Amino acid sequence: MIRILHAADLHLDSPFDALSEEKAAQRRREQRELLRSLASIRAENGCDLVLLSGDLFDSDAAWAETEELLSLTLSELAVPVFIAPGNHDYFRSRGRWTRLRLPENARVFSSPDFSCEVLNDMGVRVWGAAFTDTYCAGKLAELRIPRADDFIDLVCVHGEVGVPGSRYNPISERELAGTKADYVALGHNHSFSGLRKAGGTYYAWPGCPEGRGFDECGEKGVLLVDIDAPGKVRARFLPTAARRYERLSVGAGELDGFRLPAGSERNIYELTVTGETDSAPDLAALRRALEGQCFALRLRDATRIRRDVWERAGEDSLRGVFLRMLREKYDSARTDAEREEITRAARWGLAAIDGREEAEPLGNT
Ligand SMILES: [Mn+2]
Predict the structure, then answer these.
(1) Does one domain contain both 213 and 349?
(2) Are 234 and 250 found together in one domain?
(3) Rounded distance between C-alpha atoms, residue 208 and residue 221, angstroms
(4) DSSP states of 294-336 as a string?
(5) Model confidence over 16-66: pLDDT tens digits?
(6) Same structural domain, 158 and 290
(7) What is the predicted pLDDT for the residue at 278?
(8) What was the pLDDT predicted at 358?
(9) Which domain holds residue 147?
């Protein structure tokens, strides 16, 4: 049996620009700690080799200390490591992959054409290819693995499955099956695929091991892949994320005493307030109430004004005059977006007239 640690899309040194500068720096530090945990996961689980399927770095603008830490981690992994550069960290001459001093156990694929590394002592062959630019045409169709009964064949490559027009090495199930490999270790898509099978070939992508935004919600991690014999493949997902991104919603009527779920302290939330109300929800108060319960918080106001608010337009009062003016604008508005904006103005204006504290602007993070 061989056991593989398969990870991809670390996107080290991401900008995290939705967070404050201080918290973004902390997130980048936590990403670097991810490298350390790869080494301990490898050791604790006794993995025989490591496949890193691209986008280890988010861009060329990585910190020198991050690159050095990668070199150190690779040597600490202490088993053969294969890296298939992706669209964010593609291989180029005089780029980081030629500049970095990598330990002897690490091999970076450098050509868009597949090449093979044979690990005789394990009875394993590793086939891999690299992005050498941001975009890459489909390459997997060209891979025809010559049959060798005594070897387990692995493929390590960055690419996008099931999106025929993709500019990121589009890969079809038919091509996966055509490789006749035992396991294809992919990267690019940031959500775990589950262990899949095309023909006799198993394949998977682990997703990113650390979420970086609300498009990367939920548990994130890496894969332990066991190959007992050719055609006998199992995979286990290991969560690695220091913090999770989560989206929640709450009705405007349920804000009093609302709390984030247990264990929320480490996580990052987007909370959307929904429902029909007479006035804008007090997001500033909500923020004060919840801020201590999580690492970072984004509030969204998706409430709608109750119809009867407009009915007060008949009042002989400042409120009445204000609502009549807005109602005229509302009736002559041409788009939903305009009407939405006027409705919001009505609610905020009413809150101001009633002496309530002003809510934080929509989209404040
Ligand atoms: Mn990618």
Answers:
(1) no
(2) no
(3) 7
(4) SSEEEEEE--EE-THHHHGGGSSSHHHHHHHHHHHHHHH--SH
(5) 888 889 999 999 999 889 999 999 999 999 999 999 999 999 998 888 899
(6) no
(7) 79
(8) 46
(9) 2-239
Domain boundary among 223, 239, 255: 239
Low-confidence ranges of the chain (pLDDT < 70): 307-309, 356-365
Distance from the CA of 144 to the center of ligand 1, in angstroms?
A: 24
Ligand 1 mean position to 271 CA, how many Å?
A: 28
C-alpha 267 to ligand 1 mean position (Å): 24
pLDDT of residue 111: 96
The answer to whether 9 and 208 are in contact (CB under 8 A) is yes
> Residue 184 carries which DSSP code?
E
Give pTM, 2 decimals. 0.82
Distance 99 CA to ligand 1 centre (A): 21
- Identify whether residues 268 and 300 lie together within a single domain: yes
Give residue 63's pLDDT: 86
Residue 20: give its domain's CATH number: 3.60.21.10
Ligand 1 centroid distance, CA of 9 (Å)? 7
Distance 87 CA to ligand 1 centre (A): 5
C-alpha 298 to ligand 1 mean position (Å): 26
Q: Which residues surround ligand 1, an ion (CB under 5 A)?
A: 55, 86-87, 188
Co-location of 319 and 346 in the same domain: yes
Ligand 1 center to residue 295 CA distance, Å? 27
Question: Which residue in 181, 171, 120 sits closest to 146, CA to CA?
Answer: 181
Alpha carbon of 284 to ligand 1 centroid (Å): 37
How far is 84 from 157, CA to CA, in rounded Å?
5
Q: What is the pLDDT of residue 356?
A: 64
